[in-house]
Write a structure and sequence with these properties.
heterodimer, A: mainly beta, seven-stranded mixed beta sheet, four-stranded antiparallel beta sheet, 11 strands, globular, B: mainly beta, six-stranded mixed beta sheet, 12 strands
């Protein structure tokens, strides 16, 4: 089954404790992206990747890191999480930016 | 820069009512336009798309027409059901321009029986 898998689904952590949210897709997609969703602000792009070893900042990259060492994986790293990074995060992938975007089920992160 | 503006929500309708959710955009290239839907507790999924002017996207009774002259892509459905309750996002991909995918802020729809 074609899917984007992100883990964990829920995560509660404390300020400053490094964490990684994993994202994997099984569709051989070139394009992958991370978004955060906040009430009243909609979906905002954090980082995106057009291909292996190619990543670019989205609209809200501060406090986040990503890597694209393999085509299928695109982890999101928070080196020192802060409470303002409490949000619902989505990973997504597609063949190209003008093609259908497949989304993961989301990760609800709470930073205390 | 590229942007998408969609009507503020929330929108509350009775079952079988007519739905319109307005969406307008600005883009520098030749955008493809999308509507995504997010059901409670789930990720977004593509509802419909249109890639050029005057194209009509349709799916599950929803329709939207790419209007270049008014830079709009309004979502419509003739008779909504309770199961259509969700958040709807308009989006564009500026092919030939920034190549970025830009989302509107979303419109929450609640349909009451």
């Amino acid at each position: 089954e074609a899917q984007v898998t992100q883990n964990p689904r829920y995560l509660i952590t404390v300020t400053g404790k490094k964490l990684t949210v994993t994202c994997s897709q099984n569709m051989n997609h070139e394009y992958m992206s991370w978004y955060r969703q906040d009430p009243g602000l909609g979906l905002r792009q954090i980082y995106y990747s057009m291909n292996v070893e190619v990543t670019d900042k989205g609209d809200v990259p501060e406090g986040y890191k990503v890597s694209r060492k393999e085509k299928r994986n695109f982890p999101l790293i928070l080196e020192s999480p802060s409470p303002n990074q409490t949000s619902l995060y989505f990973c997504a992938s597609s063949w190209a930016t003008n093609e259908k975007l497949f989304f993961g089920s989301g990760t609800q992160l709470s930073v205390l | 820069g590229d942007s998408v503006t969609q009507m503020e929500g929330p929108v509350t309708l009775s079952e079988e009512a007519f739905l319109t959710i307005n969406c307008t955009y600005t883009a520098t290239g030749y955008p493809s336009l999308f509507w995504y839907v997010q059901y409670p507790g789930e990720g977004l999924q593509l509802l419909l798309k249109a890639t050029k002017a005057d194209d009509k996207g349709s799916n599950k009774g929803f329709e939207a027409t790419y209007r270049k002259e008014t830079t709009s892509f309004h979502l419509e459905k003739g008779s909504v059901q309770v199961s259509d309750s969700a958040v709807y996002f308009c989006a564009l991909s500026d092919v030939g321009g920034s190549e970025k995918l830009v989302f509107g802020k979303g419109t929450k729809l609640t349909v009451n029986p």
